[in-house]
Write a sequence for this structure.
């Protein structure tokens, strides 16, 4: 019953607003928001306590190399990555992070 009261809306306006905020923030810092060229890459980092998530736009091979580099660095501190929680996943399959499943949401309706 409570779901009947919740409005159904597209995530498009939310993504548009967030994109605009990111563009304005980048412009104020003098950083290009979108890199030009087919060789451009993007990396986003999200951390909560000892958990972290990287969102990477690039090749799968590069993503695996990044994961190996992080694993090697963490090993130098005496810590170890949790193999069950670590890996490279495509955005369409989604990942579990802090009890939520995060997927790419391109034009899907959110309710």
């Amino acid at each position: 019953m409570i779901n009947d009261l919740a409005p159904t809306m597209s995530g498009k306006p939310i993504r548009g607003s967030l994109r605009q905020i990111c563009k304005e923030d980048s412009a104020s810092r003098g950083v290009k928001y979108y890199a030009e060229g087919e060789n451009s890459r993007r990396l986003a980092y999200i951390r909560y306590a000892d958990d972290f998530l990287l969102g990477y736009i690039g090749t799968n091979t590069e993503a695996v190399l990044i994961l190996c580099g992080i694993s090697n660095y963490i090993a130098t501190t005496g810590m170890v990555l949790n193999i069950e929680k670590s890996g490279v996943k495509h955005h369409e399959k989604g990942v579990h992070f802090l009890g939520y499943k995060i997927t790419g949401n391109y034009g899907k309706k959110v309710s």
Remarks:
- Helices lie at 2-5, 12-29, 60-76.
- The CA atoms of residues 55 and 97 lie 12 Å apart.
- The two ends are 14 Å apart (CA to CA).
